[in-house]
Every structure is written in structure tokens, then in C-alpha cells.
Amino acid sequence: MRSREETLRSMEAKSFDVCVIGGGATGAGCALDAQLRGLKTVLVEAGDFAGATSSKSTKIIHGGVRYLEEAVNELDPAEYHIVYRALHERILMLKNGPYLSRSLEFLIPCFHWLDAGYYDVGLKLYDWIAGESSIFPSHFLSREETLRRMPTLKNEDLVGSIAYADGQFNDAGYNIALVKTFWESGGDASNYLRVTGFQKMANGKLAAAEVEDQFSRRKFLIRAQAFVNSTGPLADTVRDLATPGIHHRMRLSKGSHILLPLDVLPSEDAMLIPKTEDGRVLFAVPWMGRLLVGTTEQEVGIHDDLCVTEEEVEFILRQLNQYLEQPVSKKQVVSGFAGARPLVSRRGDADTKKLSRDDELEVDAQTGLISIMGGTWTTHRAMAEDTIDAVQRYLGLPLTPTLTRNRPLTGSIGFTPVYWMSLVRDYRISEQTAQHLAARFGTTAPEVLDLAKKDPELAKPIVKDLAPIRAEIVQSVWDKAVTIEDVLSRRTGLEFFSWRSSMEAAPIVGQILAEQLGWSAERTRAAIAQYVDKIERYLRLAGLAPETSHVS
């Protein structure tokens, strides 16, 4: 494994065909596609991989039931295009990352027969659009079957439910697996490397990106023939670096989610709440042993604070409680997260909830900057394919087919739903830890367990009675984690499982990171304190009084 400094020196010394800016879902997908087509590619990310929008989704791979309803009601071909493309991409995500994703049945509870008929017809259209990419057909469930599957549902006036299929996935894990697959294909990548400007040739085309390491503050140039801007909410910032004063296109919508104990809705299925107070939909999804509920929609600016607020917690619970026999209280919330959706403005002053989730590809005639804007997680691969087609055209190269449609991500080859059993047998670990590691690393999980085999301290859980083990912290460093948040939020998922458990984990994570990265005792204490302060702030903003922390 190369050190961070070795990676940065390699980037500075080389000249690339393509420099992809932005290490979220679309950027990682672009980098992998370009590298597999034989283009020498470098990927740079200003924060952590999946550090923003790409780890703040509702964790579902879907065509978009709401988008289909809008396509029909408003005769909007853009919304239909989103649904069609997403439904056909959905099956590829499930196939290429089987340990990070699964098919999931969604139930729409119906309290009137007219509603049942409406949703049944709509979802039959959803099935028809999916065609051969369908997971399984939608169908009606009786009142008795609905309550058997979701026993805590409000049962008064319930007539049944409509069930349909979509997918579920670990968004941060999928993103990092895309980056790791890119590395394994020969690409260069670094997180915490911010583009601060561009150098241009005499004809005005981009020749090099000026970058700054966010830790050492060292600055250098990355030279490439083509530059891809896949920075999501920050797309206008990069466009403005290339062409100062350019008309901005992005409008950002904040989506917040909360996590609750799974016994609030003890089910293997997810629930779709089809109509909220603001005319949207809400999902309640079993995820990582929790019930994930969201999302909200509020227009925000690029510098706005993206934290779950008490008002948003109350809004989400108010929508959910209309469907539950026993109302959920705010004190049951264990965690939450918020992110910004990057929407491309096409309709003047329309509300963000009315803006299309479709993507747009822009090739700047003056500088050559190729910007991929908007879109959804489910369509990231198709967006990347379109973008690298544009790169090849810009470079005057023959258009070659993408190789990402049937490219398993690292850890996927040989994976089966019962793969975890081999980990229990070979390493004598608990079923809970085996299932967790298999779902995080797929068939590369033995690399983590081999670390624990060499050092028994690393076999211990990070937090008592929870599945993640300390060897994952070392593996996280190998996977370019450099902060406590990188480990607890995006590599192990503990921050999403429980804010308070993540505070308890912070000293252990900080100490192991210090050993791996050579931190001083002072820096380690500061990093732990900073992380704990951040989580306590999340608790306060969400209206959940934090317990007094005594972390040293």
C-alpha cells in the first residue's frame, strides 16, 4: 500500500488523459469507466470519498415512484426518462455489488379501496417500464397479510397494501468500492485534495488543475488532457474556477433522515408513505438493524449547515405516526443525517421538489471543462458512461463501449448471501460480526480478519456488543480514511447506527488512527474532542439533549 505522500507525488509527476474532480458516486463511476476504457485517469476529492451527498441518500436503488406519478400527472417526459433509465440501471447496481445491495419489497398501506386501485395501476405501469429489468411484479396484499408483515401498522380502516420491488444498498460502501475497483484497475486517486484553480493553454483550454492537500497544505499541479467536473452540489464552484462569472445552474435541496430502533416497524419489508404534508413521499426502510425514515425537502444554499433539525425530526415523526398503532416519540431517535441534492435548474423559480432529478452534461466550448450535473445515485453508472463518451469525443478518440455494465466491484466475485457462514467457520467469529463484515467487504473480508488474527487486540469490538471490530479501523486507513468521522460514518457505519455509540467509539478509533498515521498525543486528543463535539452538536440541533461526555 502506498502512503498518502507517495500517492500525491505520483500524481504530481504524471500526466493524465483524464482528471475527474469529485469522488462521490458519479465521479467514482466516471473514473472507473475512463480507466477501464484505457484512459489514464486520476480522481481527486476535496473531502472524503462519499463524504457528502453520496452517503446521505435514503439507501434505496429505485426508479422513483414519485417521479413516475409526476410524469403521468404533468405529462413530463423528463420525469419519465428518469424512471425508465433508473429502472434499467437498478438491476446493474444489484448485480455488480451484491454484498452491498439487495432487492427489497416496499409496501404502500391503503386505507381506502380507491387508493388501492390507484397505486395498483400506477405500479403495474412501473413494472411495465422496467420490462426485463423487473425484480418481481407488484401485487396486492390483504389486510391480514399486511399486518402479519408489519404488525405495528395502524389497523383501523386498513384494507391492505400494494407491494412492489426496488433495491436497497450501502451508499457509502458502494461509493468506496467503486474507488477501490478504480485503484485495482490502475487508477490514481486521493481524497482531501481540493482543486483551487486551473491553468490554461494559449487557446483557453484547460491544461492543469491547481490542487491543495487539505492536511499538509502542499500545493501542486495535476496535468491532464481532459477535466471532468462531477462535484454534485459544488458543480457551479468548479465551473466558476474554469470560467469566472459563468451562469450558475445548481439549486440545492436538503434531505434529512432519522434512524429509529427497528422494533418501531419490525419488518423485513420497507414502507412507502405516499403523501406527506408537503405533497411528497416518505420511506421507512430497515437498514443496518435500524429503521431509516426520510426524507425531507428544503432549498438550501451552498454554505448552509446540513444537520438534522428538531423541526425536521418532528415533521418526519408526524408523517410516520399517522401509520403506526403506537406513536414514536422524539426520544427514540438514535441518529440522523442530512445532505444536499444537486438539482439542475431548468424551470425558473420552481420549488426544488418540482425540479427534475434528471442529469445534464455540459461541455464548455471555451475551456473544454466537462460537467456532469444533477442525476440520482441509481443512475450514476449511466451518467458516467455518457460523460466518458463525451471525454472521448473531446479528445478526438474513437468512441469505445463502456465496460462498467457487467463489471463486478471489488469483493463481489464469489459472493453469495450465505458467504458469511464461511467466515464463522474459518475464523471462529460470531454470526453478528461475520454478517457485518460480509456486508461491508464481501469476499475481501478475510483481509480484515487476517489483521485480527495477527493482533488479537484488533479482534475486539470497537464498541462492546456491537458488530464492528477494531481491525476495520486499520483497514479503513488502507482505504484512505484519515479522520475519525471517515471511519465511523463511511467505513463502519457506527455513526448512523447510534450517535451515542459513535461517541463511545471515538477514543478507540482515534488511538488506532494515531498509531497508523503517526499522530502526536496532542493531535489525537484534539481529534477525539472535535468528533465528540460534533456529535453532541448534532444531538442538540435535533432536539435530543446530549449526555455529558467525559471523553479524554
- Helix count from the secondary structure assignment: 18
SSE class: alpha+beta
Basic shape:
globular
Average residue-wise pLDDT: 94
Rounded radius of gyration (Å): 23 Å
Percent of residues in β-strands: 15-25%
Unreliable stretches covering 5 or more consecutive residues: 548-552
Main beta sheet strand tally, sense and closure: 10 strands, mixed
- Beginning-to-end CA distance, first to last residue: 32 Å
Tell me the total number of β-strands.
18
Report the oligomer.
Answer: single chain
Give the fraction of residues assigned to helices.
Answer: 25-40%
Quick structural gist:
This protein has 552 residues and is of the alpha+beta class. Helix content is 39%, strand content 21%.
Description:
- There is one protein chain.
- This protein is of the alpha+beta class and about 550 residues long.
- The chain is built from 18 helices and 18 strands.
- The protein has helices at about 5-15, 25-35, 65-75, 75-95, 115-130, 145-150, 170-185, 235-240, 310-320, 380-395, 420-425, 430-440, 445-455, 470-480, 485-490, 495, 500-515, 520-540; strands spanning about 15-20, 40-45, 60, 100-110, 140, 160-170, 190, 195-200, 205-215, 220-230, 250-260, 270-275, 280-285, 290-295, 300, 335-345, 360-365, 370-375.
- The strands form two sheets. Strands 3, 4, 5, 6, 11, 12, 13, 14, 15 and 16 form a ten-stranded mixed beta sheet that branches.
- Helix 2 (about 25-35) links the parallel strand 1 (about 15-20) and strand 2.
- Helix 2 (about 25-35) packs parallel to helix 7.
- Residues about 550 have low confidence and may be disordered.
